[in-house]
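Single Protein Entry

Contents — chain, fold
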Amino acid sequence: VAPCGSNTASLAGWWLVAASGARQLPRPSLSLHPSQGIEVGSNVTLWCHLPRPAAWVRLCQERNVTPCMEKLKVRDVAVFSLVVTKWVHTGVYRCRYRAPEGAETSELSDPVELMVTGEGAGD
């Protein structure tokens, strides 16, 4: 599964879109529930809110080698659940989507930071 992209890839992608004259899709928004007080072992949900339907939605953790999570054929919200949160889930997340028609992808959402706290076997 392809990564959401670093700032460099994002800038390169923007340049390619601008140079080709293609229109980039509007940015989705990402929210975290609960928004704070996330302890090791608790459940967390990330919601990627879309301005339009999507063929797929990807949620990626920045600077992580684990694959992005993906949902297919989403109307307005893609819900990603992290069950039994661990320390490795701490980080910055972003989402993006692709339109059902065409190959263009959206800009990355603004970043959302997930901070896992507490004690336990958080590996």
Observations:
- DSSP finds one helix and nine strands in the chain.
